[in-house]
Amino acid sequence: MPFDISILSVKDIIDILLVAFLLYKTYKLMKSSGSINVFTGILVFIVIWVIVSQVLQMRLLGSIFDKLVSVGVIALIVIFQDEIRHFLLSLGSRHRTSSLLRFFKGSQKNDNSKEAIMPIVMACLNMSKGKVGALIVIEKNFPLDDIARTGDIIDANINQRLIENIFFKNSPLHDGAMIISNKRIKAAGCILPVSHNLNIPKELGLRHRAALGVSQETDAMAIIVSEETGGISIAYQGEFYLKLTAEELERMLTSEDEL
């Protein structure tokens, strides 16, 4: 019997679109966290379970799969506990509330954000010319308090000269990462989680791996200035944007949420 699409109501269409959206977001989350193979394995298992239980109606094998599925939720919570924690912290973040308020009041962030962004851009350009290595992490919705505590708390206004002094080669904080939150330099000399992605190009060093790692585990944007080449790059949502010009760097920073 052919499926009659006319029986679909508006609610059914919204339901299908929401499920598709959730699957897409789950896929992106798994891909950025390096768990895409686990996600694919779960989908394959579900397909096999449906075929065995519903299509072939194998009662013995189907009952075994049913038991596995019944305890599978607990297993998934254990496997994806970091991703679940990331999602819940993101939902409860203070930035969600401020974004909602900006939506109703109208956005006035462009000028204010530019005042905070330009010192970062100019500092990165100067450090690039001098081949001074730097790693700057800009907090978004996911709080970086745990990472900030691994370094020295500064809590200072964003200032070009201060950024350059912190990453000066003889500075005791130059090897770690700087955390920027709420238009302020929150901490410096911080330790970031390192990505173990095997697809990272060999010419990219530890700073790039650390930047990619924090972009995979959080929604932060990490700016890298290479000590070897002076190139400016960004790691965001588990992806690299390499060899950026000043205009590209500014555009990427201003196109995202406020600092």
Automatic annotation (TrEMBL):
Instruction: Provide the transmembrane region boundaries.
Output: 6-24, 36-56
- What Gene Ontology biological process does one annotation of this record name? cAMP biosynthetic process
Protein keywords: ATP-binding, Cell membrane, Membrane, Nucleotide-binding, Nucleotidyltransferase, Transferase, Transmembrane, Transmembrane helix
Residue intervals of the DAC domain? 81-246
Enumerate the SUPFAM superfamilies for this protein: YojJ-like (SSF143597)
Catalysis performed (reactions): 2 ATP = 3',3'-c-di-AMP + 2 diphosphate
* GO MF entries: adenylate cyclase activity; ATP binding; diadenylate cyclase activity
Enzyme Commission number(s) of this protein:
2.7.7.85
Provide the top EC class: transferase
Read off the NCBIfam families from this record.
diadenylate cyclase CdaA
Cited function: Catalyzes the condensation of 2 ATP molecules into cyclic di-AMP (c-di-AMP), a second messenger used to regulate differing processes in different bacteria.
Query: Tell me, how does this one assemble?
Result: Probably a homodimer.
Q: Which PANTHER family does its entry note?
A: DIADENYLATE CYCLASE
Recorded hits in HAMAP family, A to Z, give:
DacA
Q: Which family does it belong to?
A: Belongs to the adenylate cyclase family. DacA/CdaA subfamily.
* Protein name according to UniProt: Diadenylate cyclase
- Species annotation: Phocaeicola coprocola
